[in-house]
Amino acid sequence: MIWAKDQTYSGWGRALSAKGDIAIPDTAEALRNDGPAIGNRRSYGDAPLNSGGKAIDMTKLDRIISFDRETGLLTVQAGITLGELTRVFAPQGWMPAVVPGTGFATVGGAIAMDVHGKNHHHAGSFCQHVTAITLIQDKPRKITPKTGALWLATCGGLGQTGLIAQATLQLVRTRGDMMLVTEQRASDWDEHLSLLDNSQAPYTVGWIDATATGEDLGRGIVEEGETCKGLRPTARGTKKVPFNAPHWALSSPIVKLFNAAYYRRVPKIGRTVVRTVQDFFFPLDKIHDWNKLYGKRGFHQFQCVVPLDQSEALRTIMQTIATSGLASPLAVLKRMGEGREGYLSFPMEGYTLAVDFPNRPAARALIKRLEAATLNAGGRLYLAKDALSTGAAIKSMYPEHSNWARAVAKADPEGQLQTDMTRRLDLRTPQ
């Protein structure tokens, strides 16, 4: 067991931080259920933080335990990343069924957030492809979907039912380790939704210009992808942001210019290109520490999902963002299906919008307005991204919250696994 005493650490958004001891076990036998688990801290807000307490860094527990090449069943330790699994298994014709937008997410983190990907409209959420989880409570306990409430409280449950030590995943077959990608321009909001609604591709995602207003509101680029075989392009090295960018680097005029150029990079008639799976699924992973582009104050991401019949409400949210002058170039619009596995799993059938904002008072006030609009539309916020919401709003957005709170109280009666997020939102108190 390695100890890092009195460490200051943060989530990916860097707007919130914590100070405390971090234990780094290097063997499964060293795991103890006396603090919340953390991985690569790719959650943006305070979900991976435990101010004044201990956290268990799982990243050294990253072994592949077993793999059945006939069925695709893979058992791994929780600290292995989805990017590593993609790197190892895609050339063999297998991939994790669901991956989020970064390959640095660990398997344990993907379970704790029940992450979704560019294929949610077809494949559902990550935990719907997990067949077993080993939790460390007072002693190791293996759970499956048949376990009932404990399973539902663990999937998407913020790591509050025990340390996620290992998991068995059902991988899916692929045609190769390359992606055939079709890119189309969407000229406005209605066309953007139409392209998403009518897509039959296995993977679909929309980049949206969060600065466009008027007739251009909602314009963007819709990408559709499917796995394929092909020659790998010459590998390009990763880049790194070496320092915190100045405050003007993402000022409104610069973001508008960048977004206009990015929109026009795709011809009016569209195009089809071949990319590696890493470039398609994890485009920003090539830029290490890209969160420093928002400066030392960090940033917030607002991500909501609203039901299909609330597209006009989401359009109003988009208009509010576009006219604020606060958005960054990083904004995503996706169509989601019904798939979700846990009481606090984020997905619902509808549309999800994610937009980054530099951490400024005006942005925090804007996000508060956007939260209220999401609640009024019958939608919900994604806890993997949240740093600013209120407990009352979150509990209203997640109707099964009380079921989760009761299961967590039974699994962790002494509150050893509490985090800054669960305390901020008072999540462990039933509504």
Automatic annotation (TrEMBL):
Stretches for region Disordered: 410-431
Highest rank taxon of the organism: Bacteria
Bias kind Basic and acidic residues: ranges: 421-431
The enzyme's E.C. designation: 1.-.-.-
GO molecular function: FAD binding; oxidoreductase activity, acting on the CH-OH group of donors, oxygen as acceptor
InterPro entries, alphabetized: FAD-bd_PCMH, FAD-bd_PCMH-like_sf, FAD-bd_PCMH_sub2, FAD_lactone_oxidase-like, Oxid_FAD_bind_N
Keywords: FAD, Flavoprotein, Oxidoreductase
Top EC class for this record: oxidoreductase
The name this protein goes by in its record: Putative decaprenylphosphoryl-beta-D-ribose oxidase
Organism for this UniProt entry: Octadecabacter temperatus
